[in-house]
Amino acid sequence: MNIIEIENLNKIFKTRQNHFQALNDLSLTIAKGEMIAIMGTSGSGKTTLLNILGCIDHASSGSYRLNQKLIEGKSLQALASIRNRDLGFVMQDFALVDHYSVQKNVLLPLNYLKDHKLRKERAARLPALLEKLHIRHKQIEKVMNLSGGQKQRVAIARALINEPEVILADEPTGALDQKTSQEIIQLLRAINQEGKTIVIVTHDPNIAACCDRMVRIEDGRIIEDTKLILSV
Question: What keyword terms does UniProt attach to this protein (predicted)?
Fold first, then answer.
């Protein structure tokens, strides 16, 4: 079953002087449980695509279905609900609140849940989730005191706390050294093998090699879509 289906997607950024077409009639399907790398040079459209997949931006034309539900035309409130319920985000710069503890950072997405019982149930998962990510001993530590690898593990925990079906990662190892990068990608792979669909934007072929599939974008178009033999 496909969890993501985009068809003839176009994205045009308009300024007073000119128009820039970031995505050009792009179509892509991603199966449930797949781990896919999106690669391309700077300005190729890969981050624009990820923003649309993450319901942060919208397409100029074309269609996007997430879990067979059409995203176009949704209200800002509905999109915010989809982001919080169905999607988890892992960013290159971690996007954490430095003066908050690990625990407080991870639990932040639960603040937007209206169901108090569900919020309590998911908060109760925190110790086991931190244990799985090898940061249980840092639970009350302020994020500013952590290493880069530990911060990214906190970001992954935050992405998982609401049990989303899809994890979107934008250069998740870009700020890390090679050894830590491998640890993080292997962690993401383990999460994928538990059933999560993961989409990674990366410039690193070593990271892409750990995925099921590599999609290369240039000038807003897919120029390569290759199934990979896993190296991990």
Answer: ATP-binding, Nucleotide-binding
Let me know: does 123 contact 107? Beta carbons within 8 Å: yes
Q: What pLDDT is attached to residue 231?
A: 47
The residue length of the chain stands at: 232
Q: Strands 69-70, 221-227: parallel, antiparallel or unpaired by DSSP?
A: unpaired
> Treating both helix axes as pointing N-terminal to C-terminal, what angle do 178-193 and 148-160 enclose, rounded to 10 degrees?
20
Domains of the chain (ranges, CATH numbers): 2-227 (3.40.50.300)
- Does 230 have pLDDT greater than 60? no
pLDDT of 88 above 80: yes
Using the Cα atoms of residue 154, residue 95, residue 213 and residue 204 in order, give the sign of their dihedral.
Answer: negative
Q: DSSP alpha helices (H): ranges in the chain? A: 46-53, 76-86, 102-107, 116-123, 126-132, 148-160, 178-193, 205-208
135-158 pLDDT, tens digit each: 999 999 999 999 999 999 999 999
d(CA 58, CA 61): 9
Instruction: Name the one residue in this structure whose structure tokens are 């971690």.
Output: 94
Supply angle C-alpha 71, 31, 209, rounded to 5: 120
The DSSP result for 46-103, as a single string, is HHHHHHHHTTSS--SEEEEEETTEE-TT--HHHHHHHHHHHEEEEETT----TTSBHH
